[in-house]
Amino acid sequence: MARIVVDVMPKPEILDPQGKAIVRAFPHQGITAFSGVRQGKRFELEVDGEVTEEVLATARHAAETMLSNPVIEDVVNVSVIDNSDSAEA
Amino acid sequence: MARIVVDVMPKPEILDPQGKAIVRAFPHQGITAFSGVRQGKRFELEVDGEVTEEVLATARHAAETMLSNPVIEDVVNVSVIDNSDSAEA
Amino acid sequence: MIEQHESQQTDSPQQSGSATQEAQGEQQFHLDTVEHAAQTPDTELPWAELGLKEDEYQKVVEILGRRPTAAELAMYSVMWSEHCSYKSSKVHLRQFGEKVSDEMKKDLMVGMGENAGVTDIGDGWAVTFKIESHNHPSYVEPYQGAATGVGGIVRDIISMGARPVAVMDPLRFGAIDHPDTQRVVHGIVAGVGGYGNCLGLPNIGGEVEFDPCYQANPLVNALAVGVLRHEDLRLANASGTGNKVVLFGARTGGDGIGGASVLASESFDDSKPSKRPAVQVGDPFAEKVLIECCLELFQAGLVEGIQDLGAAGISCATSELASNGDGGMHVDLSSVLLRDPSLTPGEILMSESQERMMAVVTPEKVQDFEAVLDKWEVEYSWIGEVTDTGRLIIDWQGEVIVDVDPRTVAHDGPVYERPYHRPERQDAIQADHFTGSAADADRPSGAAVKDAVLELMASPNLCSKDWVTNQYDCYVQGNTAMAMPDDAGVIRVDERTGLGVALSTDCNGRYAYLDPYNGAKLALAEAYRNVATAGARPAAVSDCLNFGSPEDPEVMWQFAEAVRGLADGCLEIGVPVTGGNVSLYNQTGTEAIHPTPVVALMGVLDDVRRRTPSGWDATADGQAVYLLGTTADELDGSEWARLRGHLGGLPPQVDLTQEKLLGELLINMSRDGMIDAAHDVSEGGLAATLAEMCLRFGTGARIGLGEVAERDGVDEFTMLFSESQGRAVVSVPRSEEVRFKDMCTMRNYPFARIGVVDAVNDALDLMGTASIPLPELKQAHESTLPQYFG
Amino acid sequence: MSANTFEAPLVADLSSPAPDAALKDVRVGIVTFPGTLDDRDAARAVDIAGGTSVPLWHADADLQGVDAVILPGGFSYGDYLRAGAISRFAPLMSRIIDAANSDDALPVLGICNGFQILTESHLLPGSMIRNNHLKFICRDQRLRVENAGTTWTADFTSGQEIVVPLKNNDGQYVCDQTTLDMLEFEGRVAFRYVGHNPNGSLNDIAGVTNARGNVVGLMPHPEHAVEAGFGPDSTAQGQVAMGEGTDGLGLFTSVLNTLINGGSRA
Ligand SMILES: Nc1ncnc2c1ncn2[C@@H]1O[C@H](COP(=O)(O)OP(=O)(O)O)[C@@H](O)[C@H]1O
Ligand SMILES: [Mg+2]
């Protein structure tokens, strides 16, 4: 079994209330290294057979039409994870 | 400006209602290539200066203590994105 | 748009700007200062792209005595837009202020024109409520559009000095089976809930209607109601020379200025992002914090004047605050906290970023003010002060970029007398009655009435709205005495006395399509009836007028007629309009939506524990069921006609004197304990009313309509499905029947005993015709929305 | 009631005043975080039950000597990141965690968002994820009190049913199998959904308790079923007049009575 990763992020010009809340909470934990946080989504799509070009194209299509809302989000990555047991480290 | 990416996924043994809903919706869109979907979170932490080992350690610490809940989630990736303008493609 | 503009206008300020920019080194933008504008009178500005008409632009030039700067142009263009200036509707809306009696003004503390009207409800308490549309944004991005719609109306309420206590959401969608309806319904309902639930405001009612005329034009109207002590009333004015002006809440980003990105021509910096988000994303958490923070500020008496930031952002807030006060304000725009540092001054002035407020604070209270904001971790920046110059002056990095009389921006916008005329087809529409039409071929009778009632109660517009309303928190704050699915939402205002308010929003767009004048009156009548059935004394109206394009004379006629009807109606029934909102251009191509003048009515209850539920429960077993009012053949525009695909003829007759009489009866009977349940008759007729009353608590009734049908001279089908006005069904305890009948007789209101509550048989038994088992009725009523939306 | 009530248990000399007056002396702190919604409702519930509610602010470092604490419902920090995730780090939470774990076993009740904060703080096991139907849901919910031995359930009997409102986005209780077995074995499931599992929670779990029974969390909202006229339309006994359901009151009387009758059951 292989997996395809799709990463979706809020568009840069769009307000990201979640990221905002996190970055404002950091200092209370003594974390000051980060000037901004944005929170997006990561999808892992499981493929039973082989990841052909066609499957990848389908993943890209799904990413654009279903996994993201193009009005407020960008698909920033569609790629294959090879090892089936653990995600990239 | 550099960015650190933190990826968090629901633990394999924990139900993922959102992923489940997506994989059930796929066939209605004619998408049949994927046997499972899991939805996690992707955080992008902005670093104003350089990404030192220390900053990376802070990111790992934030990932483990705040950005994920170890009862239900795993941190699957903490890494640096180099180019500052666009995410990895 | 930007490229186009730049290539077209080689002679534009950019040219001279480039030179200046080089000279200034660090300066990122070419600054179109007031001084520069005076020196370069011939510079062409993109007024057309910003939506101004040529004569409007000329008027700006005339007012200023020179060409406007880019920033001034930004302000005038947004403030003179239809949305902000009401330029097409103003001449008609005046009637709401003119057609009022002294009696109607008695309890009015703040009338139309402010952020929201304020009504005195006694004991030192006041209530403010308002309804507003967010239709277009909700079609583009349903979740965020609906969410920010709720957010915006709630800020209007805060800006009066009130604590918001509830929201409502009248919604209109396209055909239930249209593919796009899924997206729109899911997004909008989740958005209304997502924002309202997170703010901790109970949702206490609304509407859901499906009709193809709203395809690609869903209506999202949002109502918020707030309460305040009389002394806490705040108004949007900036008075007291030397007082400080503060902007607080969220940072300013490029939200809502997508269409106006033409202003990017102020800039020469190519790296500047050309894309401004067309969609605003709401942050309900930020707004919740803002509410609590503002209430703490009010309580400590730390603000003199306050204004929410909605449409037209800082342009609107500064010009309105200034023109309502001593008439002058000096603002340094460079101190505005930005989310996107690449914004130009014009864009900052136009930005519609959510969750922001502007306040005026006396210098000695600045420190205390800051302490409260710090406590709530709300960001703020002091951006200027009140002056006595009569001018609104705005600086940007040390240069004056705006110097205007604020009244000319906020109040002296253009006023149009748009041409209108009665559509030619209106006569034909009104002549096409349902009764006797092809659609009226098979009237059910006898046992077939059962299936007819089941079909009606399962239809998209009469089915249970639980799928929607179960996604809304109606409990939060602990003061909800009644909510969905009852006729009105009821909120307790004073925990000691039980004093409270009831609200209902209503409109039947089909009636308004057949006859906009009477359609508006019918909307008022239904809202009035709903509030009165709940046992509350009607006190104030707010409206949200949703129409097509005002540039279409036939739509404009619908609008003019509806406003005239509502204003006349309010005068007849004696309840003032305290504020509202107009949403025009709701159309796709040349097809306008049905005229949809939504009426929101607020009433007062001395003790909310006495509110009347819209159905009977098992303890009412054996109580008598009475119908108040009479029934005529009025099936035009009805739900039954809709089921048969017919829309024509004339809507039901509306007699507001009768409605008022009915209202008084219902209120008095409720107060004196003569009725245990009351439900008005509206869409779907008596059939729907009886079905809903049985379903409310799952308790049946035995009903016989023969006698009353004979009295009214109609057949049983008409009795059940006609939508005649001025009717309500009540259940009366046996011990109260004599008093009940006496009161109806004394007031000369028609009444008829039509049956009894029956807790044993678990059915709505239309005796001699059909018996409908409640489980079957419930199943039909509750399955429709889940079946379509999951 | 001043000073430190944990050192000087209320029981000591409260025999003389009438029981009501004694309840009044029990001070229950209600914590407000930014985004908390049901704090005033929880305070009202405590007051209706006869106790005295004390507002507490998340950023303070002082518990003001309260005898018990309620973390009310709402969307603290907008439920951003995860429900309860950011609030868990509030200064007052450290105090509450310490006091709950101390020998004095401060009674703590987490309702909805409060429950989520308690799991994020690891005062209670497991966690809540999105409802299985992915929608916010507001409904009157039937529950069974499974454990009447906690500080917050002592006025119920085990197996007793109640009806209280439920309203949330993230109400699906999850935990690993070992934890689940442990909770069931030790009788630490405090409340279970009856009739209808509204969100997919494991084993129909609606609320759990810690081992000592002083910390309890549940997703449904007992504070919305304490005042006749403003609650659900039914009780566990069946339908009542509109809004008259007050089945939630028991949680609030439980803590008051437990504190008066001998402190927590540690
Ligand atoms: N979008 C909505 N939000 C909240 N409540 C709603 C909504 N739509 C309908 N309701 C509620 O459902 C009930 C039935 O609606 P409706 O048939 O339009 O009422 P009525 O005919 O009395 O005006 C009312 O209590 C109404 O407030
Ligand atoms: Mg009604």
Describe this structure in words.
The complex is a heterotetramer, with 2 copies of chain A (89 residues), 1 copy of chain C (790 residues) and 1 copy of chain D (266 residues). Chain A has a 3-stranded antiparallel sheet. Chain A has 2 helices and 3 strands, in the order E-H-E-H-E. Chain A is 27% helix and 34% strand. Chain A has 89 residues and is α+β, with helices and mostly antiparallel strands. The model of chain A is unreliable at 84-89 (pLDDT under 50). The radius of gyration of chain A is 16 Å and the shape is elongated. Chain A has helices at residues 17-25, 53-67, and strands at 2-10, 36-47, 73-81. Chain C has 790 residues and is an alpha+beta fold. Helices cover 37% and strands 21% of the residues of chain C. Chain C contains 29 helices and 28 strands. In chain C, the strands form 5 sheets. Chain C has a 7-stranded mixed sheet with strand order 8-10-7-11-9-12-13. In chain C, helix 22 links the parallel strand 17 and strand 18 (577-583). The two termini of chain C are 42 Å apart. In chain C, 61% of the residues are buried. Chain D has a single domain (22-260), classed as 3-Layer(aba) Sandwich (Rossmann fold). In chain D, helix 2 crosses helix 6. Chain D contains 6 helices and 13 strands. Chain D starts with 18 loop residues before the first helix and ends in a 6-residue tail after the last helix. Chain D is α/β, with parallel strands linked by helices. At the A-C interface, helix 1 of A face loops of C. Strand 2 (36-47) of chain A pairs antiparallel with strand 2 of chain B. The site of adenosine-5'-diphosphate has 18 residues of chain C, from strand 4, strand 5 and helix 19. Chain D: Its EC number is 6.3.5.3, 3.5.1.2.
* CATH topology-level fold name of chain D: Rossmann fold
H/I helix tally of chain C: 29
The secondary-structure element order of chain D is: HEHEEHEHEEEEHEEEEEH
Decide which structural class fits the backbone of chain D: alpha/beta
Uncertain stretches of chain C: 1-29, 259-274
Helix content of chain C: 25-40%
| Order of the strands making up the biggest sheet of chain C | 8-10-7-11-9-12-13
Share in β-strands of chain D? 15-25%
State the major sheet of chain C.
7 strands, mixed
CATH superfamily of the domain at 31-99 and 236-413 in chain C: PurM-like C-terminal domain
Strand content of chain C: 15-25%
- What's the CATH topology name of the domain at 31-99 and 236-413 in chain C? Phosphoribosyl-aminoimidazole Synthetase, Chain A, domain 2
CATH homology-level superfamily of chain D: Class I glutamine amidotransferase (GATase) domain
Number of domains of chain D: 1
> Which pair has the most extensive contact?
A-B, 42 and 42 residues
Distance between the termini of chain C: 42 Å
